User: What shape does this take?
Amino acid sequence: MRVKETFAKSVIHYHDHAYSTNWDINLYRGCEHKCIYCFAQYSHKYLESDQFFDDIIVKTNVAEALNTDFSKRNWEPRAINLCGVTDPYQPLEKKYELMPKIIETFIRHKNPMIITTKSTLLMRDLDLLEELNKSAFVEIRVSASVINENIRNKIEPLAAPTIERLEMLSEITKRGIDTGVLMMPIIPYLTDNIANLSNIFQISKENGANFIIPAIMHLRGETKKNFYNHIDKLFPNLRSKIEPLYRGAYVDKKYLKNFSEKISLLRNKYNFYNKIKKREHPKKEIEQLNLL
Assistant: This one.
């Protein structure tokens, strides 16, 4: 793996599609977790490398640049997602410790924050997140799609074990911080079985998650080719089942309908209906994903 340090002039980015919010910050570009379905691989095409998992760019001055962005006259507190195309708590964060400085900057400016992660390293910063939550809302979203560790090790090799990710939600919710589970992406014929889905619902419920948002894998652009290359090596009999479902980037509608019915049954079984609090911030910036 190659690591390149860089300086950023500005770190808050706006995008029209409200995925959690319309705003995000990427303190890293590239990700060590090496998830075989990663949708963000396209982002390195515009940089000096197309090796999303092997060439990691670190914005070492991200907290200082963020403070400058927050200090601009036209900035009003808006929910910002960390991160848009990478994980803020990927393994390199142990070395660079960028997130504590970022959270401190959010505290200084009383700006709301949403974090999405597959890592338990977030627990290192829980005291700071609790402090921020006193003046501006904080929401922690754990990405979790498979309980079986043999499968998880193959498709998300450097992410934290799924059970550990879900169990840390209990301590976070005790601090009064909202939590949720992004059960995505679900891979047809691999992680879509009812036993796996049911386990995630049950463990999420037991650990106090406020909501759970399931979604089937999308295969856009280069992601499709890279995904199938991995599948051919890791699960050689699976491609013949998955490929007919993806004539384009999105899964077959009949399959999606059946999946949605499974999710409805699980919501009823576990009495797990999303409890997403209304925010006192512009609706556009905190629009949630459509729920199944």
